[in-house]
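User: two proteins, same treatment. go.

Assistant:
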Amino acid sequence: DLVICLTQEVEKRVLAVGTSPSRIRRLPNRIDTRQFHPIRDESLFQSIASRFPAGKHILQVGRKCHEKNLDTIIRALPLLPKDYSAIFVGNGDAGPYVALAEKEGVSERCFWITSIQNSQLPLWYSWCDCFCLPSRFPSEGFPIVSIEAAACGAPMVVSDIPPMNEYMKNDESACLVKDYDDPRALAAGIEKTCGNANYRRKLSQGAYE
């Protein structure tokens, strides 16, 4: 009866295969903002911070798969200051990524977590120095984790592709990276976001709005 599309990009693809525009409805992903909201009480972060080295913390939440582009985050780490570490949360085979981290000499700066309870995720999003999702897959719906992170005011470093750039504006609500497969470009976006307090605050507020 109807075809539900999460984003404009998905709608374009549905139209391209011949679906009548009258049958299409746009219905974006959504979250419960009573659960996902900024947390500013620093004392609540101690249980997370104590698990990792001091410094800047890059958070990635999602499946461990090619589309999510964990490998470029790992390759970006050697180009960042040594106090930057990456925390990868999600299901999937971490083996190839662990091997890549060892090859790149950053295994001690990468941390692998299979899952975190939804009730705890707002703490992680609010605590991290940046949320990084350099997705390679432009036709997916706006990822739920990105909406969660934005609702918690996480400064975001994401790919400059649909649907991310349908909703996020570069240097206002996210740092959008055009060359998201280039470790140098991604490292530059991460360092710009984590290392500049004013820019980070601007992205945090913009993401929340």
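Protein 2:
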Amino acid sequence: PVVTQFQAASTSARREIAILRFEVVETGTEVAYLVTDSPVPPDASASWQASPPLVFPVASDGLFVLYPWAKDGAGNVSAVYAQPVTVLVDTVAPQILSFRAPAISGQRAIRIDAWDAADERGITGYLVSFSAEPPSASDDRWTSSAPQNVLVATDGLFSLYPWVRDAAGNVSAC
């Protein structure tokens, strides 16, 4: 058998990596599938599956290189796939270390005086909201750098909530 297509999520905020595509060409009718994090061909006693796996579980955070494998009914195993997929698994949310804005602002562009956040793999998004409900990692309001100010439409009292996001899509606590 020949693995012709293989794709997995490039990042995961869970210890399960989503397998997005796994296609095999085989002239026979019996095909078994396996994903490993090793370029060494698995043997017949490996945990082969009758259909392509949907996830690849991992025990820890880190970088993983995934290799797809196929086995035919005669026990022949595919060659090592030429384009393995590297995936970052990061289950730890970034932290906001400090955030400060003036208690009173004479303008509708409220200045952000201080904003410091940390993540062992880096911050990829910043967002200030008016709600304590965490934004989704795919919210279109995320910016790649910390905003200098927050715009409000009217005069009044506003609570500002800072959020940061990392490359795996983990969102900080408020």
